[in-house]
Amino acid sequence: MNRLKLHFSRYSFYVILGIIIVSTVVTVMSIHAAYNYRTIKNGKIADMHENSRLTVAALHKNVAGMMAAYAVNDYETLLRNEMDRRDNYAVIVEDYNMGKILGQESYRTGQIRDGAWNAIDFDSDNPEHVKALTEAYSSESHDILTPQGKKIGTITVYLSDRTLNEAFRQLIVDTLINTLVISVFLIVLLFITIRLFVLKPLSDIVATIDEGNAQGIPLKPVPGEGSREIFALADKMNWMINTIKDSQKALEHQATHDTLTGLANRTLFDDRLEQGILKAKRNRTRLALLFIDLDHFKEINDSMGHKVGDKALKIVTRRLEKTIREEDTLARLGGDEFTVILEGIHEPQDASVLAEKILKALSEPMTIENRVFYSGCSIGISLYPDNGDLPDDLLKYADAAMYNAKNEGRNTFQYYSTDMTERAIERVVMETNLREGLKKGEIVVHYQPQVDGRNGTIVGMEALVRWQSPEYGLVSPAKFIPIAESSGLIVDLDRHVMKTAMIQIRHWYAAGFNPGVMAMNLAAKQLQQKDFIDYLEKLIAETGCKPEWIELEVTESQIMIHPEEAIQILSRLSDIGVRLAVDDFGTGYSSLSYLKKFPINKLKIDRTFVQDLPHDEEDAAITKAIVALARNLNLSILAEGVETPEQQAFLIENGCAHIQGYLYSKPLPTDEMEALLSNTLG
Ligand code: C2E
Ligand code: CA
Ligand code: CA
């Protein structure tokens, strides 16, 4: 059965259907022809008998008279005429009277048809004629009587089946032609229908499956055009494909995830770590690997049983998931060991920020089955590329660091290298102090004048934050801004600086000074705050500042991360009327096409280009190019970090007259800045 099916399946549907159609039509037409033949035959036979009856009726009376009068020639003529009029095979008369005269029993004469169906005289001595008569289809004899009732002869009409055969032949030809025409018509009709509704949709399905992936799973849904049945087929196939895809996904998930917690397992972890290292290598960033081991899990498991242990692991998982960023990989390597792969970090200390958060999250008590447990954890941290660049090494080092953390008394973290741990701790302490310092008013603002180099007038100033710490002294922003950024403190800190600077400039204007524009730095996080624009507008209203006194500095890298979003937010800022400057220009990766779209007013040439002017040829070329670009885009231009008269001369000569740098002044505390303002006034 199976073999037969296979055998048939190699033929095209068209061939199979062609055979079926032809044989069906042939059978139907044959039955039809057979029926027709019978009807025709019966009709013909009836016709022939009618003919012979009419012949006999026409001849009988006259022939009887002629026989009685021995008028042989006359009735022979009569017979000839009769043969011409009707379609009989032969008409033969036996004349007893004439026979007597000739000394025979009877005189036989009449007409018979030859091979060409012409009537000729019957010759009773010709054996062929006699034989032809015996082979005739049928015959009918009638006695010829005198008026007195005496039998004087017979008249016999012979019939041939020739006409019958002719009719049959015609029938066969007609049937064949009909069969052919109907078959061709049906085949063409079926061909078109099948092609349109079955075969074309089927080959579309096959084509879609052909374009599938390596496992033969189509990438697009299987099309279901054509007929309802094809639609149903495609629908079922798609359902099947989705089921297979789902179970493939489930299998894949099972193979790469931990069943208890749903976290990545060792396999996926290895893969992610390897990918992460490659990515870090490409992007020249760091990667941190955190090895987390729960501190008192064994006790919980041993004393309360595995069920409670499992629940504890699930709670820990949920807390870890909440603590890390979405792009970080959290994995469970087994037992109570978890790892986090932290990608795209820049400073080793960034990892400790997360470690702190994890320590805090896991030190919260857990309630399981109405009992409260305390676990906590120890964390080891290794770093790419600082500690190594092989996945296995990083894991080994993080594990070793974790044991150090355990030895340090648990519930703490350790870097693989001890000085990193020290720095991290220092940083944590600093963060706490900074938070306190912001509250206690230790954050102050210094102002660095911006000057028109051609005549020495002050055109504006940049507000630069300082931390006046009782512990560390005057801390530079380079030290504490990164800490403020990673802890989220930067938003409040920047707002504090903005508020201070805006109150100050408003005061200077009110006091009759001419401080120009107040430039303020914005952290990326600040721009991302949903309420930032509202806050700024409120601040402008509250302090009584005019928007055109304010200039906000953003860096290239800050706006190029999400350029489209940046365009929107910068446009809204520009609508308020504040000015926008691109800080550190030349160090990022601005694309010119975006630069044209940003509603900015100013480019600040970065200090690194100014530093070696005018001797460094490359820097000189870049500086000239930036000035040309600014002129082209109709932007003002200012050079930062100008320290020498030579630098200033070069810049002025090449079209950058506005200067900021130690040549004029370092950033100054408020009172010194005020003194400078009154000097230039006077
Ligand atoms: P920046 O915006 O590029 O600021 C210019 C930096 O160059 C300032 O350093 C300034 O003191 C320094 N500088 C100015 N002229 C010269 C010069 O002639 N020679 C040299 N060597 N340096 C010069 P500062 O004040 O230490 O600030 C460092 C960075 O900290 C700033 O770079 C800015 O990115 C950030 N920053 C400062 N204040 C704030 C703030 O309020 N908020 C935010 N988010 N960041 C700030
Ligand atoms: Ca700046
Ligand atoms: Ca700058």
What would a concise description of this structure say?
The chain has 24 helices and 21 strands. The protein has 682 residues and is of the alpha/beta class.
Describe the structure.
By secondary structure, this protein is of the alpha/beta class. Helix content is about 55%, strand content about 20%. The strands form four sheets. An eight-stranded mixed β-barrel has the order 13-14-16-17-18-19-20-21, surrounded by six helices. The protein has a five-stranded antiparallel β-sheet with strand order 3-2-1-5-4. The protein is elongated, with a radius of gyration of 57 Å. Bound molecules: ligand C2E and calcium ion (CA) (2 copies). One calcium ion binds near residues 462, 521 and 583.
Give the arrangement of secondary structure elements.
Blueprint: H1 2-9, H2 13-68, H3 72-85, E1 90-95, H4 96-102, E2 107-113, E3 119-121, H5 127-134, E4 138-145, E5 151-159, H6 162-210, H7 228-256, H8 266-283, E6 286-294, H9 297-304, H10 306-323, E7 329-334, E8 337-345, H11 349-363, E9 366-368, E10 371-373, E11 377-384, H12 391-407, E12 413-415, H13 418-440, E13 443-452, E14 457-469, E15 473-475, H14 477-487, H15 490-510, E16 517-521, H16 524-528, H17 532-543, E17 550-555, H18 556-560, H19 563-576, E18 579-585, H20 592-597, E19 602-605, H21 607-610, H22 617-632, E20 636-639, H23 645-653, E21 658-659, H24 670-681
Parallel strand pairs: 11-12, 14-16, 16-17, 17-18, 18-19, 19-20, 20-21
Antiparallel strand pairs: 1-2, 1-5, 2-3, 4-5, 6-8, 6-11, 7-8, 9-10, 13-14, 13-21, 14-15
Helix pairs in contact: 2-3, 2-6, 9-10, 10-11, 11-13, 13-14
Bound molecules: ligand C2E and calcium ion (2 copies).
